[in-house]
Amino acid sequence: SLHDALPICGERGGKMKDNELAFDRTCHVLYSKPCKKQIQKRIALHYPPEKQEAVWEQVQQKYVYFLSEWRTDLGGKQNFHNGAGGTYDCIAILCYYDVCKTVSSFREIEEIEEDLILPSFRKLKFVDCNKLFWRKLMYKAFTRAKSSCDKWHDYEMHVAPYEKGKPIYYEFTACPAAEFAKKFGFEDIMPALCNVDYASMELIHAKLIRTTTCANGCKCDYTICGDRDTYAKEHPEYRDEAGYRRNT
Q1: Average pLDDT by consecutive 10-residue portion of the chain (248 residues)?
Q2: The model's pTM
């Protein structure tokens, strides 16, 4: 493919600055600073110092290429899904994987996404989703998120009515990150990005029950209960052959 034939940017000499990357900033955003830091840290683990800048520039050039072929309706900086760990960081991580797949691993990609997403959940360690108060608050947060999704029509989100004593349920029937993976051939590594949802829920004493995602099915389903809830015990978790964390 064309993107496999991209030259090593480091060969042209000079340092490729983030603000010089040639993509349309009226509709796209740059990867976040935490994401850049994570990727560069991983590059430093795998390559000698004299090659690290050239490898990073390959990642940058992949990012520019993919955005030139990507949808332009995701709201840019206005869309809350485009921040750290969000849609554009997922694209940057996939660019890193594309350039460095011979030295990277499934678990490393999983760790990069965890390092971007989980810090904010670690700050919520006082939250206990076994308690009614916190479950109600979570439900309100999900309904607010749906309003934002409805505004941008990026992640098509559907939230089931709240029922006392039952798990919270919502689903996505569209996911830009999954669409990107399918368009550019990254389905094999998508589980490493999707699995962070399980890890994030565990940090607030919740349990995610999931059977499918937008990347390997037609929807991404979220059934969320407390980690001591009998519902969680009735739906044990396993990893499928593709690497997805999911439930029976």
Answers
A1: 44 70 94 97 97 97 96 89 91 97 96 95 94 95 92 92 94 96 96 96 97 95 96 96 95
A2: 0.90
